[in-house]
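Lecture 7 notes: from sequence to structure.

We start with a single chain of 352 residues. Read the sequence below before looking at the structure.
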Amino acid sequence: MADESLWSRVRDFAARLFRRKPPTPGRFIAGHKFSWRGWLTGAPWVWPARDYLVYVPAGHTRWKRRPLIVLLHGCRQTPEELASGTRIASFADRHGWLILLPRQSDKANPWRCWNWFDKRTSAGGGETAIIAAQIRAVRREYRAHPRRIFAAGMSAGGALAAALGVRYRKLLSGVFVHSGIACGAAASPVTALDVLARGANAPYEHLAAAARDDAPDGALDLALVAVQGERDEVVAPINAVQLARQYLVLNRRLAPETLQAGVLPEPDAQTTTTLTDGRTMTTTDYRNANRILVRLIRVANLGHAWSGGDPALPYNDPHPPDASGLLAEFVIEQIRYQRASRRRRFAWLSWR
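Now the structure, written as tokens:
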């Protein structure tokens, strides 16, 4: 009887030891980060630090490095509203992504817009430096994959994501901009209003060429997807065209002097798709071999709103295409390209 009792206890202990624990649920965790380079030209009294949220997906462990998506909200939005409207947490849980959601301060901008038009920000300091510091902090703390970090944003957040791509190419693997603006398109709040309505009034293409030439060794091509509503009355559609042009220059696909003003060069592919609600979506692609280098997606009858978002929240349109799904496809495709490139590199080294 004693032997049976001992064996029962040993068996129960082994069962507890090897029992598979249920995955931890996804959760939001708050953080705060400072950067000495984060002072703003237009608001030098604002302390160069910003709060942020990190969404840690269900089942996350530190044993496996995960992609990190930086998602930047627009004006009059909060990180919570953007996360809810885009349903980004469900995508994070499905794919195992970490999500960084920076929060703009009311002191830095009374409408909670990111100051994409600030000279220091577009030069790589200001709020681009603060977000870059947040990325590095989250990457260390949660062991995010250093070569699978993507910046995305809506409106002013999209403009800041575009600036991050230009100024911090080596930190990122791709940029996804919804209703955004080219880096350096404006140099002050006053000129920003004109840019929103009419497009850039600064040499944004030459800025990209200079950033390209100054890029650190090892900085690779940085893929861009830009989504733009053709009926956007806040950010004129010409801004998406200019953003695509800027990244074509940044990635050495074109030289600024070869571009005709206000138009895109001949694409590698272009398709127009009729969506379920009668809208059309025109996708214009520029490729480097089999990889998307720049993709411009123009959606007819879409205003200033995240396409496919939750209509219960402002700046969200419930109709297709699903911009969050497009973001997911973009991230998955870039990761697939990285893996294929790594296999080819190892195969070449083995052959040698």
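Residues 26-351 form a domain with the Rossmann fold fold (CATH 3.40.50.1820). Keep this in mind for problem set 3.
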